[in-house]
Amino acid sequence: MTTPSGRTDAVHTAGPLPSDEDIAAELLDFLAERTRTRWEPDQDLFAVGGMSSLFAMQLVVHLEQTHQIAISGADLMLDNFRTVEAMVRLVNKLRGSAPAPGSVGE
Amino acid sequence: MSETTAPAAPGPDREAEELFTELAGDRAGEWDRAGEIPRDVLRRLGARGLLCAQAPVVHGGLGYTSRRNGELTAHVGSLCSSLRSVMTSQGMAAWTLRRLGDAGQQADLVPRLTGGELAAVAFTEAEAGSDLSALATRLTRSGDEVVVDGAKVWTTNAAYADLLVVFGRTEDGVGAVVVPASAPGVRIERITDAHGCRAAGHADIRLDGVRVPADALLRGVDRSSALLVTTALSYGRMSVAWGCVGILRGCLTAAVRHAVGRKQFGTRLADHQLVARHLAELLIAEQNAARACEHASDLWDRGSPDLVTAVVLAKHVAATGAAAGSARAMQVLASAGAHDGHVVARAHRDAKLMEIIEGSSEICELILAQHAVATA
């Protein structure tokens, strides 16, 4: 599939589940494209001078679409999107389970 | 996302539009003057899932895409912004349950909304409007219960609601709890002098020591209100935006009909150049708002992260367009439209409120400016 920005969504179509490195690399690219800034995997995106809560929601939608997961309930907290490392952990936790019906950005 | 969308049903739902026209078309003025929509109308629409048509099929919903739900919302908005506001609240409640609830809570609660129970989402407090980090309502764990204490203001649909989704402060941060409107300690005080959307069931809510089971607290609890509120409001903003497209369509139709049907100085109003300009500006506003809404809804349906700012932009374009456009329509209809209950008089009052709720025009502009700066 193709993401809205036109990139080929390699993470989702590669067949076997992507490694932590793949997930992190895709996220770092996404962040760089969106913010015109390179981020470190452990860097706090929402620290002073960082991203807004609207950007956090963009990350929610991006992760859901890229990894076909649903992020809701107790997982919908800012700390899960604070760093690339935290997002990799969240994806690993959620992608084992089928997406909750209709939860994703629909 | 497509997996719960009704198959091969992407176009507007003409049957549902006809039902809304049949129920509201001739009565919206009367509802506006009375400040109330008959409950049986709301129950009937609610039980068909039409007040929150994006709720997934698996929860008894219609599984509409954002685009299809938006077109329906615009249709209702062209008839009656009070009824459209009820839809916005019901839809936002269903969306909030799906986002903040875990799978079990979603399965328990969303079907109640698609089955006809009515729900309101209570954010605003006297001291917490645009700044929802200032919420003071307390959600306190007490054994296997949660105790709710606080006061909410200007909650749309609260006067009709069976369920209230109440945002407040827990020991751990900010969250939302589902409170039956009939629970002891809940007092709903209807606002009887609303400037606009007079029949939308606006009410202030007092919650004094209201006890609900612990499971009524939605699992989504965060240290800050930002992400939870942004998520919940996105649905409301999209719905308000489409509702404003409807306001503009209602105004455009009424203004053109009047301008073509009435002569002054021996010439149709539509041929007076200064009047013609009002008609052009109304058309431009309607088209601008419709395109912005279609774009945002299509991003929503594709699961694009760009939906987040597109929704804010659509809300802003549509609400400011509707406020300015309804003023133009008033000017064209003049005394013919200057009666409470008239579609244009209602639009003029209702549209102004749309510049205030779900993120004021100023807050929308701040968000869009932040986006511009962050992505420059």
UniProtKB/TrEMBL annotation, chain A:
Domain annotation Carrier: ranges: 14-95
Domain of life: Bacteria
InterPro entries found in the cross-reference section: ACP-like_sf, PP-bd_ACP
Pfam families documented for this protein: PP-binding
Protein name: Carrier domain-containing protein
Species, as recorded: Streptomyces djakartensis
Automatic annotation (TrEMBL), chain B:
Acyl-CoA dehydrogenase/oxidase N-terminal domain span: 16-117
Pfam families linked: Acyl-CoA_dh_1, Acyl-CoA_dh_M, Acyl-CoA_dh_N
Domain Acyl-CoA dehydrogenase/oxidase C-terminal: 229-371
All copies of domain Acyl-CoA oxidase/dehydrogenase middle, residue ranges: 120-210
Gene3D superfamilies: Acyl-CoA dehydrogenase/oxidase, N-terminal domain, Butyryl-CoA Dehydrogenase, subunit A, domain 2, Butyryl-CoA Dehydrogenase, subunit A, domain 3
Keyword check for Translocase: no
Keyword Flavoprotein in annotation: yes
Record-linked InterPro entries: Acyl-CoA_Oxase/DH_mid-dom, Acyl-CoA_Oxase/DH_mid-dom_sf, AcylCo_DH-like_C, AcylCo_DH/oxidase_C, AcylCoA_DH/ox_N, AcylCoA_DH/ox_N_sf, AcylCoA_DH/oxidase_NM_dom_sf
Cofactor(s) listed: FAD
Family: Belongs to the acyl-CoA dehydrogenase family.
Protein's UniProt name: Acyl-CoA dehydrogenase
